[in-house]
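Lab notebook, bench 4. Still working through the backlog of constructs that have no structural model yet. Next entry is a single chain of 305 residues. Request: give me the structure tokens for it.
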Amino acid sequence: MGWLPDRPDFRDYHEATEAIREMLDSEEQLKREIRKRPSLDKALTIPPLSRRVKADSLPASVDLRDYCSPVEDQGQLGSCTAHAGVGLIEYYERRAFGRHLDASRLFLYKATRNLMKMRGDTGAYLRTTMGAMVLFGVPPESYWPYTDDPSAFDREPTAFCYAFAQNFQTIKYFRHDPAGAAPDAVLHSLKTYLSRGFPFIFGFSVYNSIEQAETSGRIPFPSQRERLEGGHAIMAVGYDDKLEITNKFGGVKTKGALLIRNSWGTSWGERGYGWLPYDYVLRGLAEDFWSILKKEWVDTGAFAE
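Model written out:
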């Protein structure tokens, strides 16, 4: 685990922000892209919150696992935010170009805590994780390998590791749950993005019933008698409207779940993947939803195929 909840900020980008809309929601841009590449018969367009697609027009399920990089294991560190952020970058590179940089999760975790002016295994904010990624970039894993060794994980990366920043500076990051957004509207927006090939990262409250998901990956909605264990950041890579999950501790049964990519290794859940009920979003136990965009990725025409 290691996610630190962060409140919405009116300065956060969201899908109606001009910098985001320019990449996703301009009919003129769509026409220009088609004219530039006649072979491109589809392009991505995501309406802002005020003009989202109707719920009944979305597919009943989406699964983006084929485009994801291998699942990693954060070990004993609270570096889930960095794992989620790196997973997001690697997804887009694989989806757009068929390859990805095996990025250093340890570097991103350290750079994020540097921005927070924190030392030690403190966990991190997702907003700051996104900011560190854009400001400092992320070097290949081979230049700053992952370790959860208490005597080594908090070392300052070499200056060379910061030389990759230019590759990340055009990335835009934005929030799906800005201040005042209704939970059902947020969930619909999240599903809309997933249906167009755009995953996101977020945090959720972890209760002891998560032990039930060890082999199945199906995280139940908590019952009243459970204890709160902490916060965890993960990446959403799909959803299923029909999937049902029952909590063995209290009989709470939910229908509909987000498909998540965890950072607890491939022995957890469905080879590292799992399911989180929609109710976590609708009832405020999941929040801090972030996506990233880069024009270079969108221009490939690899999304919404």
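Notes after review: DSSP finds eight helices and seven strands in the chain. Confidence is low (pLDDT under 50) at residues 30-47. Flag for follow-up if needed.
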